[in-house]
Specification:
It contains 1 helix and 5 strands; from the N terminus they run E-E-E-E-H-E. By secondary structure, the protein is of the alpha+beta class. The protein has a 5-stranded antiparallel beta sheet, covered by helices on one side. A hairpin with a 5-residue loop joins strand 2 and strand 3. The longest helix has 17 residues. The radius of gyration is 13 Å and the shape is elongated. This is WGR domain-containing protein. It comes from Luteimonas flava. InterPro entries: YehF/YfeS-like_WGR (IPR049809).
Length: about 80
């Protein structure tokens, strides 16, 4: 599952983005990857581990909702269970 959110800047800056990716790990758990930064610039990557898929999906939805409240717009969603 992958979500891409973008915030349009004021002025001449590049837009900021947040990419949330949920994927299974090799030990049966789940990993939520959060990549944030400016388009065309540096980004940071944060990784959160979860034991089961429902808790990982709950964290993904909470991260998405937090970014939507900050003014980001959902630009892209991919995955059979991608939350809208």
């Amino acid at each position: 599952m992958r979500l891409f959110l973008q915030q349009h800047p004021d002025g001449h800056e590049s837009p900021r983005f947040v990419q949330l990716t949920l994927q299974p790990d090799l030990l049966g758990g789940w990993v939520l990857l959060r990549e944030t930064g400016q388009v065309g610039g540096r980004s940071t990557l944060r990784r959160d581990q979860f034991l089961d898929q429902p808790s990982a999906i709950k964290a993904l939805e909470a991260a998405r909702d937090a970014q939507l409240k900050r003014g980001f717009q959902l630009m892209f969603a991919r995955g059979s269970d991608a939350p809208a």
